[in-house]
Amino acid sequence: MVFETIRKLLADQLDIDEEEITMESTLLEDLGADSIELVDLIMSVEEEYDIEVPDDAADEIRTVGDAVRFIENLVD
């Protein structure tokens, strides 16, 4: 499932416990990701799912749930 993969990637990159990450967690405020970490996350997601995330789409992703839904739409 996409959520579990994203949660693991986030936990590894941000050095936080997976249990802290929910669909409602905001990437910047709740999880404390900075812009470089977000770019790293996007690159990891692109590699994991063999997709390309357009720059303008990345700007619209604010929560973990946003990321999950976006990826699910691309891989369907």
User: Judging from the principal axes of the Cα atoms, what is the shape?
Assistant: globular
Largest sheet: none
Radius of gyration: 11 Å
Beta-strand proportion = under 5%
Task: Supply the number of helical segments.
Answer: 4
Task: Find the count of extended strands (DSSP E, 2+ residues).
Answer: 0
CATH superfamily placement = ACP-like
List keywords for this structure.
76 residues, mainly alpha, Non-ribosomal Peptide Synthetase Peptidyl Carrier Protein, Chain A, 61% helix, globular
List the helices and strands and how they pair.
Elements: H1 2-14, H2 35-49, H3 55-60, H4 64-75
Helix pairs in contact: 1-2, 1-4
Characterize the structure shown.
The chain has 76 residues and is mainly alpha-helical. It has one domain (2-75): Non-ribosomal Peptide Synthetase Peptidyl Carrier Protein, Chain A (Orthogonal Bundle), CATH 1.10.1200.10. It has 4 helices and no strands. The chain has helices spanning 2-14, 35-49, 55-60, 64-75. α1 crosses α4. The two termini are 12 Å apart. 17% of the residues are buried. The model has no long low-confidence stretch (mean pLDDT 94).
